Amino acid sequence: MELILSIHKISAGLFLLTYLVKGVIIFSKNDPFKQKSFKLIKMPEMVISATFLITGLYLLFSIGEPPAYLYGKLLLVVLAIPLAVIGQKRSKPLFLWISILIIVYVFGASETGSLTFKKEKIEMLADDGSGENYELLNIGSHVYGENCLRCHGRNGDLERYGAKKLIESTLSPEKRRSIILEGKGNMPGFSKKLDQKELESLELFLDKYYSQ
């Protein structure tokens, strides 16, 4: 799954780059150059577009219950492609650049996991800020929101991308830490992303809110 996700991200970047190149070419007043350039781009664009869409659909239908924003992304990409075709075929730069802006917007939505660019956060549960280890728990809640929420969900039972139910975990603290750092199956490792304090805070947060 992680490989498919990486291929999807790379193809998405190339997809946007291809459209940006076309967006520049379309302003050329040299028609032979314009037509030749579009012809050279056509085959790579088809491969990139197909890879982008196929991997995107695979990921969409492999994650159990997809979040609503993914359907919005798919709809926007499906809208952007015919707009770009119309813009290119009829030499309408406005259509092509609207398509490019849509794709840029989709990139932003992908990075934040929201059509409004607002990442969902895990807030502390029934804690007024004076409880024991509040500072570390607060850090842990944000680490969870940034890195774990997408697959494990707010209650730890989302099971997206094959994620395990946290409340049912029987892993020892050592084994759990190893998986967090090194990854397992579809789950990537976070050894290069989390520092020691963030790791300990996440473990404390998991123990408090998602342990049996």
Give a short synopsis of this structure.
This protein is an all-alpha fold and 212 residues long.
Q: What can you see in these coordinates?
A:
The protein has 212 residues and is an all-alpha fold. The protein has helices spanning 2-25, 31-60, 68-89, 93-112, 134-147, 149-152, 173-182, 196-209. The longest helix has 30 residues, at 31-60. The model has no long low-confidence stretch (mean pLDDT 85).
Note the beta-strand portion: under 5%
- Low-confidence segments, ≥5 residues, pLDDT <50? none
Helices, by number, come to 8
Query: Main sheet, how many strands, which sense, barrel?
Result: none
Secondary-structure-based class equals mainly alpha
Radius of gyration (CA) equals 22 Å
Mean pLDDT: 85
Amino- and carboxy-terminal Cα gap: 28 Å
